[in-house]
Amino acid sequence: xxxxxxxxxxxxxxxxxxxxxxxxxxxxxxxxxxxxxxxxxxxxxxxxxxxxxxxxxxxxxxxxxxxxxxxxxxxxxxxxxxxxxxxxxxxxxxxxxxxxxxxxxxxxxxxxxxxxxxxxxxxxxxxxxxxxxxxxxxxxxx
Length: 142
What we know:
Distance between the termini: 39 Å
CATH class of the largest domain: Mainly Beta
Helix content: under 10%
Largest sheet: 4 strands, antiparallel
Radius of gyration: 16 Å
Number of domains: 2
CATH architecture of the largest domain: Sandwich
CATH topology of the largest domain: Jelly Rolls
């Protein structure tokens, strides 16, 4: 529970605000990610409209896949448990384990697959706009 509390504090204050908390001895801030690009190198661009932040905890059983999909808005994922491999349509992939974070790809088809016998649990925060979808399933498998 303490680990999740540290994660939530780090997500809330962000890496750039961490210095404001360093003087307080009982509070530990662990930066998870600071980036201007997604994991495959594309720039992060915010959508137009009324800003809306959404947070989800997503769980995948061993052997499960997310299915091919894309995100029209920026998102940030942190792996709480298990190992997840994310693959792009062009074959590039990234493997993430518990404790790792990434900025998701925007507008690019990708599929997440659980690697190993441990379920994957991740928390994802989306920086979207009111009324905008967070995830768009692919019309068909690539």
